[in-house]
Specification:
alpha/beta; 34% helix; 394 residues; eight-stranded parallel sheet; Urease, subunit C, domain 1; binds zinc ion
């Protein structure tokens, strides 16, 4: 049992409120029961007497649900610092740079891949991320995609098969799509919860993406799609057609795409990845237009060695507010409950009674500081299932 009082501002993301509302309680208390689930979240004045004796006072700091980073690529070898340097010196970003990481990943043994993925997951944890999704996609062969997913399973249960990241240099596209839908899927599906396709310029076109996602659904996997990042195309419409949990990137959308997403009534989330735009000096997605149209929006890091080598959800929140016209409340909701919605989960991303005891104590009196103080380390303590796993209560 863990009892915390002295919470200046408690973000509950109360699921009974409309999406995007934080359900903030001031002068609050939080209790995690012995089952590691939230037993009480509300005004300290209403804290039941039986919880009062062992309470720990956190001295007027804010407490928020742990971040749910619903889109990362943490299984890879090497890095691409030189490519980054060249791009910053004026060379444009294209999806082909992925092949550099494919070569490095194929040349790394499992221990090296696990150590790298763990290092990044731990880095994410220290900035308040308590759940993350991660993908294969740098193996692009039956053997290397399968072992990439085995590595992914060492750090999270939210694992995604992304054999359809790009076509590997040694393959023809039609042969490779057949391989993904056949032998590769057969080997990878037992280790994955989701399947994803990069449907964009330089990657997979809509008809191939449809065939791959349908094969994944037949193999029992949930669906996600990388869509409309580099240019406008049919990726988002395909995602809606297939009822995917999340269309990710959504940088280049027209009004038909936005209405299609809105018409799903939150079944298909638009996951925005502002650090990818930041790190490629690209145009940011129009979050305001999506939210005003009624689309459910998540924020995620897209952590990968090419286009967004950061695990920081606070940075994504800052960018969403400062560059994408989201309000502070919307950005924090999208980084917590929004990410959970993109993973079709209600047991995380909120602090309702019965939810998992995953949360973060900030070194500030409110969640607003996450956007207001960009680049500053504001995470004092991180709890997963009611246990302190990073930082300290001091
Ligand atoms: Zn991605």
């Amino acid at each position: 049992m863990l009892v915390l009082t002295g919470i200046s501002s408690l973000v509950t993301n109360d699921l009974t409120l409309e999406r995007g509302k934080l359900g903030v309680v001031t002068n609050a208390a939080l209790v995690v029961g012995d089952d590691n689930k939230i037993a009480f979240a509300g005004e300290a004045a209403n804290l039941p007497r039986e919880f009062k004796s062992n309470a720990i006072d956190i001295n007027g700091r804010a407490l928020i649900p742990g971040f749910v980073d619903s889109h990362t690529h943490l299984v890879f070898g090497g890095d691409r610092a030189e490519e980054f340097e060249a791009r910053m010196a004026g060379k444009p970003y294209s999806a082909g740079g992925i092949r550099t990481t494919v070569a490095a990943t194929r040349n790394s043994n499992d221990d090296v891949l696990v150590a790298n993925a763990r290092r990044l997951a731990n880095e994410a944890l220290h900035t308040g991320t308590t759940t993350l999704e991660t993908k294969s996609g740098y193996g692009l062969s039956v053997v290397d995609e399968t072992r990439s997913l085995q590595v992914a399973n060492a750090i999270t249960s939210e694992t995604t098969f992304l054999g359809a990241h790009v076509v590997p240099a040694e393959s023809q596209i039609n042969d490779y799509v057949d391989l993904i839908c056949g032998e590769m899927l057969e080997n990878c599906a037992p280790h994955a919860k989701w399947i994803d396709v990069f449907c964009d310029r330089g990657a997979f076109e809509v008809d191939h993406a449809r065939a791959i996602l349908k094969a994944g659904a037949n193999a029992g996997l949930g669906l996600r799609i990388h869509a409309n990042q580099l240019q406008h195309g049919g990726g988002v419409q395909l995602g809606v057609e297939l009822g995917v949990a999340s269309c990710d990137h959504c940088t280049h959308l027209d009004s038909a795409d936005i209405s299609a997403l809105a018409d799903t009534k939150g079944k298909t989330v638009a996951t925005l990845l502002p650090t990818a735009e930041l790190c490629t000096r690209s145009k940011f997605p129009d979050a305001r237009r999506l939210i005003d149209a009624g689309v459910t929006v998540a924020l995620a890091s897209d952590c990968n060695p090419g286009s967004s080598y950061t695990t920081s959800m606070p940075l994504a929140i800052s960018l969403a507010v400062l560059n994408m016209n989201m309000t502070c409340d919307e950005a924090v909701w999208s980084a917590t409950a929004g990410g959970a919605a993109a993973l079709r989960r209600t047991d995380i991303g909120n602090l309702a009674v019965g939810s998992q005891g995953d949360f973060t104590i900030l070194n500030s009196r409110s969640h607003i500081h996450l956007a207001y103080r960009p680049g500053v380390k504001l995470v004092d303590a991180v709890f997963v299932r009611g246990q302190l796993v990073a930082g300290s209560l001091r």
